[in-house]
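so im writing up the methods section and need the Alpha/beta hydrolase record in one place, dumping it here so i stop losing it
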Amino acid sequence: MPKVSVNGVALYYEEHGEGVPILGLHGTPGSAALWAGAAVALSNHGRCIIFDRRGFHRSALVPPPSTLDLIQHVDDAAALLAALHAGPAVVIGPGTGGLIALGLARHFPDKVKALVLLEPALFTIDPDADTWARGLRQRVLGASRDRPFGVAEVVMREAWGVQSWDALPGDIHEMLAHTSPAVLAEIRGRGLDLSDSPLEMNEDDLADIRRPSLILSAEGSPHVLRLITSRLSGALPYTESVLVSGGHLINPAHPAVLDFVDRMAATPSSWV
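--- predicted struct ---
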């Protein structure tokens, strides 16, 4: 099981294909295991790197951390790219992964060639989305008192939808359930989407992220997620927006993503 040590933790990772680096940042709850099919498809378009984030699945920590902060995930992603001599990369992030991708572009712009944001969880950009996220945070914390390993299910049923959750096989349910300690650690930490102190980025902050960005939203997702993508589309300087069918679990190797990756591979990194 390949691992690389960065910032005091051993991160599980996989590499598929060659060419322009493509970094996949899974959401919360989640794991690189959910990217298996997408990684194969992306490997036909570049060097796809996926990994389990700090505290999740094969990068689990013993004992589990009490808190996880956004900046830790951002620093880990940057260090992983450096350790693998990969970058600048096309960074793909769904949900919380999209939030981390934005943090990476903000703090380590030299590591980022372009962004693919699949309904990123920057809830603070919209008042209604922020209110929804704070309500979800309270429901998750309430559920954790009686079912600590049911936290992941609560988050996914709310964001993905009941049908999407129920369609997953039992072994994936079990794997995601065991990421619940990491989910709670993020909620107790700083900067993540369901933290008590989530990341806030104003229009000036977003305008400073001068990288090509593809923003995908799904027709069947909660309305608040489309509010976020709409606001981001207007705030990030170089954006393309695509509405896809289905729910929040958007395929990271959607045809629109593959086309974007191909175009970015042919574009000099110094274009901005």
